[in-house]
Amino acid sequence: MLSGMFRESDNLVAKRRKQIDTLKIFNANVFEVKDDSEYRVEFNSGSNKLSLLVVLGPKFPLENPILKIVPNVQHPWVSESGEITGAPGLLNFTVHSDLGRVVQAIVRELELRPPPVLGGTGSPPCSQRVEIGGPMSPNNYGYSGTPPGVAGFPPYRPPPLTLGQSQPSGNPNKHVSLAFPELNNLTVSELELLNSNNDCLDEFVDSLPVMKGIDRVMEEWITRNEEVAKETLSKEGHLEELRAAVGEKLQTACQLKARHDILSLEYQRLADRYSPQSIRFCAILSDYCNNSVSF
What we know:
single chain, Ubiquitin Conjugating Enzyme, two-stranded antiparallel sheet, 49% helix, endosome, protein transport, VPS37 C-terminal domain-containing protein
């Protein structure tokens, strides 16, 4: 019984060490803060330099690691205290997961979609927040499946639109939006209409320059695909001719092979018949027959 407990303990230590090794394999700039229990991963997110603290409890990997971002940022995966709580890889973490891949996915997400850095540990002050279109969904042009670049992880949503933050002109109906500058010219009532009416929201999204650019690129690719399809169809006749020619040559090759097999058998028969051993045997036999007749 005691030996089994020791083996289980040794196995847990080996798994813990393997998890730490994956952290160093899949990530760059990994620094050991405390031996076997705390590590720091440094990376750049836009113009900001961030650090991801990885704290491993005594029961790790049977329990989830504690991940914290420094300085704190505004991101759906990050809590007000800076702890990573919403990353799918962390939520689904098991003893069979790879710590290195989980951390790599989080770092990759923050590198690809740099979030705003918070001045303190909480969210920045604001008088009111409105999330245009509600949660990300196929109806308001969010990703319903796997986003590009980070397999298996949901996309980063821009920070909620902050109302009450006026532009220098002092116009109370204008608000600053870094993610969608087109919203800066809309009034609060127009924003509320977008938030409550999906048709208006769809029309607004379709009018965005980025969407027009996407539509233009899609049209170009559709045109290109049609050209490739037409070119492929135009070569169909030539392809059939080549297929027929190959079929004829294959049939000829089969006939030649059959003829070759017959000739090979004939050659082998003649080679055996006129081999030196056969000729010698025939000579001896003929001489023996002649001697027998003379007697």
